[in-house]
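Team,

Forwarding the record for the chain on the shared tracking sheet. I've put the sequence and predicted structure together so nobody has to dig through attachments.
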Amino acid sequence: MTENKIMEINKMPSPTWSWLKMNKAEVSLENDIENFLPDFKVGAGVVYNEAGFEGATELPELSSGTGVVIDGNYIPVGISVPAGKKISEPVVLTYNFAAGMNAYTGQVIKAGKDSELTVIILSSSDDNAQGQQIVDTKVFADDGAKVRVIKVQLLGNNFVQLDDTASYVSEKAYVDVVHVVLGGKETYVGVGSNLKGYKSSFNSELAYYCRNEQILDMNYVVLQYGKKSECYMNVRGTVTDKSKKTYRGTIDFKQGCAGAVGQEQEETLILSPDVVNNSIPVILCDEEDVSGEHGASIGRLGDDVLFYMQSRGIDAKAAERVLARAKVQAVVSMINDADVTEKTEHFMNDIFGAE
C-alpha cells in the first residue's frame, strides 16, 4: 500500500507572520487518482469535447489559486463557444461519486470574442461517502466575452475536495465565479484571476456552512494588470460546532493598471466558541492611481436580532438556522438551473431543516 503524498497548497503570494500558521495549507492526497467524466447537459452553439479541444495547449499561462500540481496524464473536458455567440441555457456538468473514489475532474472553458456562457459544475455523493475530488477549471475569456462559472459542492461528509478555478480575462471581458460549499470533510478552494485587458472585470461569490469538524480553506488571488480593471470578491457564511475556516484574499495591483478598482468583503457568522476562524485580506499595490478596499463583518448574533426573532416566536437556535441559511440562500439564488437548484435546496433542508 503506497503512502499518501502531502502537498502544500493555497499559498499566499505575500506571506504574513509564520507563527500565525496561515500562509498556506497542507493536504494529504491519494496517489491513485482516476480521470472521471461528468454527466453533461449542453445546448446548441456550445462545443463540448471529452478530450479537450484543439489549440488548448496554445492558451496563456494562468495563476492558480490552490497551486495544486497533479502528476499524470489527466485530460480535462473542453467547453468552448465561438465569437459572438450568446448562450442563454447553462452548460451543466454533474459529477456524482461512489464511495471510495479518488477522481480528477478537469475543465477548460474558452469563450470567443463578445460571447456569453454559463457553466454549472455540481459535485455530489452519498451522505457518508469517503473519497477525494480534484476540480481543475481553467477559463479563457476573449475580448468582450462574459463567462459565469457556478460550482456547487454537495459531497458526503467524509470526502476531500480540492477546487481550483483560474481565469484569463481580456479587454472588456467579464468572468464571474460562484461557489456554494455545503458538504465534505475538507474543502480547499483556490481562485486565481489574471485581469490582463483594459476594463477587464472579475467577480466572485462564495457561500458556505461549516459544521461538525469540517475544514474550509480558501485562497483568492487576483492580479490586476489592465487599466481600469475591476475586481469584486465576496465571501459569506457560518462556522459552528468545531469547524475551521480560513479565508485568504489577495488583490494585487500591478504596475500599469491605472484606474483599477478592487474590493473584497467577508461576512462570517460564528455560532460556537469552539470554532477556528481565520481571515487574511491583503491588498498589494505597485501602481498609484488605483482604489482598493477590504472589509469584514465577523461575530455572533446580536442581542437586537435575537430579541426581534424571539418576539416573533422564534427561539435562539431556530434564529441561528434561519440566518445561517439566508447567507447561503443569497448565493444559491444565482444558480440558473432548476435541477441543480432543487438538489441544493434538498441538501440544505437536510442541514437546516425544511422551511
